[in-house]
Amino acid sequence: MRLLTIIRFSFIVTISSFLFSCDEKEEFTSEKIEEYVPLLPGKYITYRLDSMVFTNFGRTTEIHKYQVKFIVDALITDNLGRPSYRIYRFIRDSVDATSWTPAQPWTNNGTFFITPLSDQLEVIEDNLRFIKLHLPIKNGFTWKGNKYLPSSICGGASGPYCSLYNFSNDDNMNDWDFFYDGDPSSFSYRGINYSNVLTVEEADESLNVPITIPTAYASKSRSVEKYSKTIGLVYREYEIWEYQPNTGNPAGPYKTGFGITQWMIDHN
Questions:
Q1: Statement: residue 250 has pLDDT above 80
Q2: Mean pLDDT throughout 13-27?
């Protein structure tokens, strides 16, 4: 009889524990977007920027070296009537093809706009609109960061870069899945260490890269950005190009497209 009572009591405790545990929900509190992109007039970030270009009709690859500086100017209203920050961009060239020589003056390189919304952060540059960050900030969370990019601006051709490059890499850019890759962590590049870095993966697709079959088509679409808490964007890699073997043409194979790698070297 005593054993039966103990069994019944144990069963009741087990059921009670199960019911209470089902009522308890794990709460996730997301960090705020503004923690990773602080926007205050006068704030600046300076970057080293390596620009990859294809010259000599696409047969030669060159890396051009620059410094760029982003300065938050003022809070304005964007073309959709929303509060937005105007960002001035300045650039200076290197006089040395192999290393950076900082003795060049800054020159104006245009403006772009950052629009913080309740659940996302948008950047509008060269009339192209991107969703760079989105809530919740959580490992694996995904969103369509390029969904506002035009699918066609060149008549029959498609993609946002169709007026500049004759490639197909940008045909489906508005369908790219952006996602947070891991939790914020440390990151190092070119001997510079960054802390509390949030990684946003945007695209990582390649075919026949490195080019091991010269007679076959090749392409690469690589895009990733890293944001450091209380600082902003500290690293960006954006590489989109296509290789055509051009078989049978005496001009030979060629590449079309571009690539940039930029990393923060100074900020206030």
A1: yes
A2: 53
103-130 pLDDT per residue, tens: 688 999 999 999 999 999 999 998 899 9
- Burial of 154-183, coded b for 16+ CB within 10 Å and e otherwise, reads eeeebbbbbeebebebbebbbebebbbeee
CA–CA distance, 75 with 73 (Å, rounded to integer) = 7
Distance (Å, whole) CA 64 – CA 113: 25
What sign does the CA torsion over 78, 83, 87, 88 have? positive
Q: Give the separation between CA 159 and CA 122, rounded to whole angstroms.
A: 19
Structure tokens given for 81: 């009537």
- Give the mean model confidence (pLDDT) for residues 246-266: 94
Residue with tokens 């961009």: 89
Q: Name the helix (H) or strand (E) containing 52.
A: strand 44-55
31's CB contacts (< 8 A; 6+ apart) are: 137, 229
Tens digit of pLDDT for each residue in 163-202? 888 888 878 888 999 999 999 999 999 999 999 999 999 9
